[in-house]
Inverse folding.
């Protein structure tokens, strides 16, 4: 078993950097394996994609990071020059790797009545499907993963996907985990070491996220869904759903480190955005030193999208760069994110837990995730501190919760931060420049080198060209500035 796990870890960085094949690869012709051995492959494949290039896209679009002005690796992402080829490889790997592997886990464990593995495969697959639906708005779903039986799967709307994900999660949660046929995958479970209790909490927290995502678009679905979780005594994650099995060796390290630094032989591409850096510094937030390596002049950010600045004008050595380490975990759903989801639910009137305590628990968990002392967090959210919970009207409370969620997701969950920014409007977008009167720290500016026109911020990715070339049922492209279905907050 240990040998198999090591091999799977070694594949993570490879799968995040090279092309994988068709999303219609036949899962029925897999080589001999078992659900317990396939589960870590499905988790590792998802980690390889979401922690690397998807994370970079999200991280630049919510302005944690910006492209170094001394290099060009992510210039298209930073400038909003979104193409049909953007993340083609990663999209394909999620279908042909992660989703296919997890479907095998679901199918075979269901046949055997091995409900613990069925739960794990289902929850992880639902997580991947939700991330894809939020990124592209429509995805191949129920007709995907059927190999030669369905060569050209139809796409489903994000709303249809969401409804089906709830059904799948409820089905998995309803099983008998004490049945004699249930096994414990142990170390093959990269996230919780075989703990069914933790996977149940992961499922409940994922359901809470799915419902909260719909609070503006479909309150008639979201509100009773959230209430049902609390009425049924659902327990949520107090630990991170994270993959931690990385070592500082080639092809065995954190996927972002492997692809951005080891494979490119440079650590200079991803620099601190002035947007995020100024917010942290102004609030004396010690997380700045856990997220960035200071430049020659100390901690300093580069204006978002200022990759065209001549190095004689802006010396790249003076700008802080992202602190990305080979052994960093990959967070699918962090404890901090879980607490902020619960804080938002409480602020909206759900459950009996105290919203302020949940908000503060989220900040503390974010500090602990970075190896910092919780007392440092307390100094910021105590009475009179810059992160003190307002305890006022809903809008003020939500702004505080979502701003701290934005900070907490930095470096690890870029796409989730992007989705939540679009859903809630926090941090806000602005057409102002950093130096303009009225600019509020932490507000997202239009990048200096932007190519979409001032004020035209990304809201989604385009359907990959590989999909449009192979599958005639791929929907027609819409502009990447078009909101996805649940983004109704300011309509």
């Amino acid at each position: 078993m240990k040998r198999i796990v090591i091999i799977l870890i070694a594949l993570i960085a490879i799968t995040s950097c090279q092309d994988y094949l068709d999303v219609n690869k036949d899962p029925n012709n897999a080589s001999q394996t078992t659900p317990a051995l396939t589960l870590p492959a499905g988790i590792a494949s998802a980690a390889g994609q979401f922690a690397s290039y998807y994370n970079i896209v999200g991280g630049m679009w919510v302005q944690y990071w910006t492209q170094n002005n001394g290099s060009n690796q992510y210039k298209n992402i930073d400038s909003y020059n979104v193409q049909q080829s953007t993340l083609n490889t990663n999209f394909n790997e999620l279908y042909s790797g992660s989703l296919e592997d997890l479907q095998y886990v679901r199918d075979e464990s269901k046949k055997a009545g091995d409900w613990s593995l069925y739960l794990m495969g289902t929850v992880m697959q639902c997580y991947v499907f939700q991330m894809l639906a939020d990124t592209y708005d429509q995805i191949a779903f129920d007709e995907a993963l059927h190999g030669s039986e369905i060569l050209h799967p139809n796409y489903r709307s994000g709303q249809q996907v969401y409804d089906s994900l709830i059904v799948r999660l409820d089905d998995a949660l309803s099983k008998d985990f004490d049945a004699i046929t249930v096994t414990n995958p142990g170390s093959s479970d990269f996230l919780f070491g075989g703990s069914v209790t933790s996977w149940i909490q992961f499922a409940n927290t994922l359901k809470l996220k799915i419902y909260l995502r719909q609070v503006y678009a479909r309150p008639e679905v979201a509100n009773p869904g959230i209430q049902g979780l609390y009425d049924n005594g659902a327990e949520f994650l107090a630990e991170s759903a994270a993959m931690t099995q990385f070592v500082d060796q080639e092809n065995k390290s954190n996927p972002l480190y492997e692809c951005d630094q080891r494979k490119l032989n440079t650590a200079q591409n991803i620099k601190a955005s002035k947007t995020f850096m100024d917010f942290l510094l102004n609030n004396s937030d010690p997380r700045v030193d856990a997220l960035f390596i200071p430049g020659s002049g100390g901690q300093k950010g580069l204006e978002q999208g200022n990759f065209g600045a001549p190095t004689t004008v802006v010396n790249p050595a003076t700008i802080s760069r992202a602190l990305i380490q080979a052994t960093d975990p990959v967070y699918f759903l962090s404890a901090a994110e879980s607490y902020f989801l619960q804080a938002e639910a409480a602020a909206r009137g759900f459950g009996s837990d105290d919203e302020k305590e949940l908000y503060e628990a989220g900040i503390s968990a974010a500090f602990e995730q970075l190896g910092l002392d919780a007392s440092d967090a307390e100094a910021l959210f105590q009475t009179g501190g810059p992160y003190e919970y307002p305890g006022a009207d809903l809008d003020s409370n939500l702004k505080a919760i979502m701003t701290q969620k934005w900070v907490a997701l930095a470096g690890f969950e870029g796409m989730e931060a992007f989705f939540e920014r679009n859903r809630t409007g926090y941090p806000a977008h602005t057409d102002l420049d950093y130096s303009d009167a009225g600019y509020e720290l932490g507000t997202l500016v239009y990048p200096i080198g932007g190519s979409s026109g001032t004020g035209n911020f990304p809201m989604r990715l385009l359907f990959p060209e590989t999909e449009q070339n192979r599958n005639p049922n791929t929907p027609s492209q819409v502009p990447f500035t078009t909101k996805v279905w649940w983004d109704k907050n300011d309509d």
